[in-house]
Amino acid sequence: MKKYAFLPGAFMTVGAALWAAYTLQWSLPALAFGAGGFLALGVGVAANRQAIGEWLADPRGVFAVNSILSTMLLAAILVLVNATVGMRDIKFDWTEAGRNTLTAETRAILQSLPKDVRMVQYGRTRDPLADGKFSAFRAGSPRIRTDFVDIDSAPQAVKQYSLTSPGTVVVQSGDRFRKVEKITEPALITAILQVTGSTEPLICFATGEGEHGLADTSAQGLSGLAAVLAASNYKPDRTSLTQGEVPQFCTALVVAGVPNGISSDVLERLSSYVVRGGRVALLVDPPVDSKLVEYLRPFGIQVGQGVIVETSGAGRAVGAGPESPIGLVYHEHPVTRGFEQRTLFGGAVPLSIINTDIGIPKPLVSTGDSTFERVDLMSRSTDFRPGRDRRGPFVLAVAVQIPRGSRDAKLPEPRIVVAGDSDFLTNALLPLTPNRDLAMRIIAWLAGEEETHMVSVEERQNRRIAMTEAQLTLMRVVNFGLLPLIPVLAGLIQFIRSRR
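Now predict its structure.
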């Protein structure tokens, strides 16, 4: 048994190395285990020194030692190469579309980052797509740090960032953060530029026509929205529509409700602001002033006469009544792209899109089929009346882009968002995460963030090969059956030849 005395030491040494490789560090237990292994290995070698000397004197022993040393050297080279690649995040992209490689524009942005950025994915299991993107972004800049956090073990982060979808990535620099739900290169680099930017877009809130108050902390106020805007690198401020023109330095203007009607002078000032490239969010409530209805027609927006009634009872879970419709359907638009949450509106007027030569109106969010328009605003009935009421679904919000002509192409592109309700972003409903996210998406689009910060590259698609079941079966037989037999057959042939 003396000749096997070195085996415990060898096993202990190899075990310590594997332990350190698995944990990516030489911890105290691993060092102790490895030192014990070396000591036991030395005792085994000393106990068999005579047999080892005779074995080394034999040419077969020399060949065996050379083979062992060569194998160890090869293993050391492979470990060194893998460690270097792991530390440097070296990767090769063999896809035809280059979908695993960052664009030159993204790499240039990452190399010139002025601040440290942390990207954290909150989910239940690691996402290989996110890990690949994180690895590429880390390789692009030493200022990028990434992490994965179990969303179920981080209730404080869920509340702080209003996380609703597992897999969401939070991009943060200092106190500024952005959420990315659909993980793509343009989305991540856009969020990075937004949180590291030095400018604060000025979001002006109109006053003078009975709008919701920016500093009002009541249920009908906008103080919650103001706090969210400030935390998201926007600067909210107030401006009067009755005392003069809308200041040109307002990145976007929010008119949150006009319960007292709207004057012709204010509408002219809005038109002047839009002509100069202004961006406006008009949030109206039933009944809508007739002058405002006519003002919106040229933009391709038709405002209804009644109020939307929700008959499904879906809003009862949050204490909402039948006059609080649910936003269920989100149409293709930069504001709603990747957004699939249910939003809750207050008393809303239905909107629709009509033909226009001025702009390009697009619906943002619509109700489901379980709604109807009650024309009688004085009634509180929740029963549909054929011949008077109108069945849904109805559009709740519309976005309008007004392309520039050749003569004024240097001016910003005017944009308008019209919502049939102003209550969805007040303190009463803003605590609902979907409402808050939709409000921020609208403001971000009006502020033109995708224009100044969006990487000009489309997300490259993964090209897949469609295979039949027979082809898949043949591939499995070849890969898992025939190919593994090749070295076995080669060894068997060599063994038979050596026996002759």
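The domain at 104-193 is CATH 3.40.30.10 (Glutaredoxin).
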